Amino acid sequence: MFVKTPKIFFRLFPSIIWRHNTDEKKLWLTFDDGPCLKTTPLILSILEKLEIQATFFLVGKDAEKSPQLTSKILDNGHIVGNHSYSHKDGFITNNTDYYNDIEKNTIENKSKIFRPPYGRITLRQMMYLRKKYKIVMWDVFGWDFKANKSKKIKKNILNNVQKGSIIVLHNNSKSYLNLKESLEAILVELKEMGYKFSTTW
After folding, report:
1. How far apart are the C-alpha atoms of 176 and 43, rounded to whole Å?
2. Is there a catalytic annotation at residue 20?
3. Could you confirm whether 144 is annotated as catalytic?
4. Who contacts 160 (Cβ-Cβ below 8 Å, separation ≥6)?
5. How far apart are CA 18 and CA 8, in angstroms?
6. What's this model's pTM, rounded to 2 decimal places?
7. Which one is catalytic: 20, 32, 87, 89?
């Protein structure tokens, strides 16, 4: 499976944001899923300690269950994006049901950014949704939800980032141990490499 998104995708789907074109040493750190009672506080504490802002693509039904965590994400200065209401797979979901599920996610989001669950979206869905949302994917995938992969996650990210990269990690229980063991070290090293973090889409 890919860590670095093949450049052919950038050319085939130019209306999707895969990475940012910039000459500055900036990265866009993103977290999918959640909020999660176990993992979100861990992520927020590390980000606060290192003074880093990130973008959280939240699932609506989980945000409704943990409104205090959603509020804390926003209060800490992070950006939230739409990751649908119930994490439907665009490849196997009726288009109308898919659009309705996205609209059901009422998380505050002035920038109107959307990331498809599983990164799966059809061409027709993309054409429809781009009228209302900036569709955000990534060019560096951490694979942090795989068990016992904390060292591999660090290599995945540090060996593949470049100016303008969008990194995706996960804000769920599957990623907790890996993030606990590796997230702070990864972010410290990225800062030492001279990277800054942006949430401007």
Report:
1. 9
2. no
3. no
4. 3, 4, 139, 140
5. 11
6. 0.95
7. 32
User: Per residue in 132-190, pLDDT tens?
Assistant: 999 999 999 999 998 778 889 999 999 999 999 999 999 999 999 999 999 999 999 99
Backbone angles phi, psi at 4, to 5 degrees: -95, 120
Structure tokens at 199: 């949430």
Determine the residue type at 88: K
Show Cβ contacts of residue 190 under 8 Å, excluding neighbours closer than 6 positions. 27, 157, 158, 161
- The pair of structure tokens assigned to 1 is 């499976």
Angle between helices 176-192 and 150-158 (to 10 degrees): 30
Which tokens go with 197? Answer: 């973090």
Strand partners, 26: 196
The 3-state secondary structure of the chain reads CCCECCHHHHHHCCCCECCCCCCCCEEEEEEECCCCCCHHHHHHHHHHHHCCCCEEEECHHHHHHCHHHHHHHHHCCCEEEECCCCCCCCCCCCHHHHHHHHHHCCCCCCCCEECCHHHCCCHHHHHHHCCCCEEECCCEECCCCCCCCHHHHHHHHHCCCCCCCEEEEECCHHHHHHHHHHHHHHHHHHHHCCCEECCCC
Out of 33, 78, 144, 170, pick the active-site residue. Answer: 170
* Residue listed under structure tokens 């899923």: 33
Region of poorest pLDDT, from 65-74, 101-110, 119-128: 101-110
